[in-house]
């Protein structure tokens, strides 16, 4: 299954921009890949891992931020269509480095 994270983090002040950058970096550390600027995904196979990742996302979310999580079954994710422009770069995916603080 894929866990899709959509988030909205304010970026009005320098502090908010720093918090947003830190949160995006943390998503990558947790094994998420960026689909769009505020849309990240990662594969989760075990329910315990999924629950722990969700807890970390809740704990580290800035006070003024909001996230929406979607759990996509494999058949939904396998049927997604990605359309790339002529000069778009197809991203490679990394293995997650699970570090729960």
Automatic annotation (TrEMBL):
Main enzyme class: hydrolase
UniProt KW Metal-binding keyword: yes
Cofactor: Mg(2+)
Nuclease as UniProt keyword: yes
Domain of life of the organism encoding this protein: Bacteria
Keywords: Antiviral defense, Endonuclease, Hydrolase, Magnesium, Metal-binding, Nuclease
GO molecular function: hydrolase activity; metal ion binding; RNA endonuclease activity
A biological process term (GO) from this entry: defense response to virus
Amino-acid positions noted as binding Mg(2+) in the UniProt annotation, renumbered to this chain: 8
Coiled-coil annotated spans: none
EC numbers: 3.1.-.-
SUPFAM superfamilies reported in the protein's UniProt record: TTP0101/SSO1404-like
Complex formation: Homodimer, forms a heterotetramer with a Cas1 homodimer.
Family: Belongs to the CRISPR-associated endoribonuclease Cas2 protein family.
Protein function: CRISPR (clustered regularly interspaced short palindromic repeat), is an adaptive immune system that provides protection against mobile genetic elements (viruses, transposable elements and conjugative plasmids). CRISPR clusters contain sequences complementary to antecedent mobile elements and target invading nucleic acids. CRISPR clusters are transcribed and processed into CRISPR RNA (crRNA). Functions as a ssRNA-specific endoribonuclease. Involved in the integration of spacer DNA into the CRISPR cassette.
Protein name per Swiss-Prot or TrEMBL: CRISPR-associated endoribonuclease Cas2
Naturally occurring in which organism (per UniProt): Halolactibacillus halophilus
Organism phylogeny: Bacteria, Bacillati, Bacillota, Bacilli, Bacillales
